[in-house]
Amino acid sequence: MKTYVILGGGGWLGVQVSRYLLASLPLIRVVGVGRNPERPAPFALQRGIDDSRYEYHQVHLAYEPERLLSLLEVKRPEVIVNLAAQGEEAASWSNSWRYYEVNTSALARVVEPLLGVEWLRKWVQIGSASVYGAGREAATEEFPLRPATPYAVSKAAADYHLLAVGAVRGFPVNIIRPVNLYGPGQQLHRIIPKTTLCALLGRTLPLQGGGIARKFFLHAEDLARAIEAVAERAEPGRIYNVGPREAVTIRTLVETICQKVGEPFEQVAQLAPDRGGQDTQVTLDSSRIAADLAWNQAVDLNKGLDDTIAWVKQHLDVLKTMPMEFIFRA
User: Fold this and answer.
1) Could you tell me the pTM of the whole model?
2) Beta bridge partners of 249
3) What does the DSSP 8-state code read for residue 284?
4) What's 45's DSSP letter?
5) Burial 263-289 (b: 16+ CB within 10 A, else e)
6) What's the distance, CA 317 to chain centroid?
7) Phi, psi of 25 (to 5 degrees)
8) Rounded distance between C-alpha atoms, residue 30 and residue 16, angstroms
9) Contact (Cβ atoms closer than 8 angstroms) between residue 25 and residue 77
10) Alpha helices in the chain (DSSP H)
11) Range with the lowest mean pLDDT among 50-64, 65-79, 113-127?
12) For 156-278, where are the E strands, in sequence order?
């Protein structure tokens, strides 16, 4: 059986990807590795329950690289998917050093001992569309990188490092650059679960800048499908953008969620001043992954919102007990 190791396997995306791979590829083992204990039931999405093909190890990528490398030597995975990252682009202006520590330095420290090992067939790096910077023209994988936040700079540096060791040392890497991701189990301070909770609980949602920003949202299942396609069929060294076909304003997104929940937009949302350091708004050209690997968006926003709202409703008794300062953190 083939073994996949998911770095960042304790995060919400790690849960989604692990669950998808276990369902999609019956002849694999999935080893999740994350810095925190496994997530509580509402956020675990039944991943790996009663499935002997799944296991989880709590290891910190940045602070315990030796433990991680020892685990990899024991498991000898054919595929490593790296979701581990210090995220939150807008927040990266505070304690920016942490983003370089985890996203760049720790990555290089782990990759170097893996150069030339015979058992590793593919390293799938989950990058970010933010490395292209803002622009009206749809960015292809050949666009020059113009990162404009510490988070984006740290992700661009990681990409450059991996491409260099791939070209010079033969490291079998592919890079996926997705847009904003969402889905069941996502952190509650993100716009889709936060809006849903506010509508269901009668809370007020501050709508920064009136919600005029246009953004692209991709369901986590579509990212998992892209990861499977790249891991199984892509030639090493290829970069793939992964994004949906259409953007949506944040106001329209919030209005749609309120309509689906059955609460008036005017009673849920309150206009608020624009926050500083907004996430980069990037338009992607995802034609390469469609042409090479036959990947296309399968979960449109309407279906994905229904999926996420259903998750919030299913676990509302637990989610509503979480501190509001956690849900409304910057």
Assistant:
1) 0.94
2) 214
3) B
4) T
5) bebeebbeeeeeeeeebbbbbbebebb
6) 26
7) -120, 90
8) 12
9) no
10) 12-24, 41-44, 65-75, 97-100, 107-111, 150-169, 191-201, 220-233, 250-261, 265-268, 287-293, 301-314, 316-319, 324-327
11) 50-64
12) 173-178, 180-182, 205-208, 214-215, 217-219, 239-242, 248-249, 269-272
Mean pLDDT in residue range 179-183:
95
Q: Provide the Cα torsion 311, 315, 316, 321; round to 10°.
A: -130
Q: How confident is the model at residue 292 (pLDDT cuts 50, 70, 90)?
A: very high
DSSP 5: E
Chain centre to alpha carbon of residue 72: 22
Q: Is the pLDDT assigned to residue 327 strictly greater than 70?
A: no
Q: At what angle do helices 220-233 and 12-24 cross, to 10 degrees?
A: 60
Place of tokens 């956020």: 43
Mean pLDDT for the stretch of residues 111-120:
97
Name the residue with tokens 């936060």: 194
Position 295, amino acid: W
Helices (H) and strands (E) in the chain, counts: 14, 13
Work out the pLDDT band at 272, boundaries 50, 70, 90: confident
Q: At residue 135, does pLDDT exceed 50?
A: yes
In the prediction, which pLDDT does 38 show? 83
Structure tokens given for 234 = 């892509």
pLDDT at 276: 58
What confidence score (pLDDT) does residue 202 get?
92
> Once rounded to an integer, what is the mean pLDDT over residues 276-301?
87
**CA angle at 136 for the pair 135 and 140, rounded to the nearest 5°:** 75
Non-local (6+) Cβ contacts of 215 within 8 A are 179, 180, 247, 248, 249, 250, 253, 279, 281
Give the three-class secondary structure for 70.
Answer: helix
How far apart CA 29 and CA 231 sit, in angstroms, is 14
3-state SS, residue 140: coil
In percent, the amount of the chain with pLDDT more than 70 equals 95
The per-residue pLDDT of the chain, averaged, comes to 92
Q: How far apart are CA 52 and CA 192, in angstroms?
A: 33
How many other C-beta atoms can be found within 10 angstroms of the C-beta atom of residue 312?
25
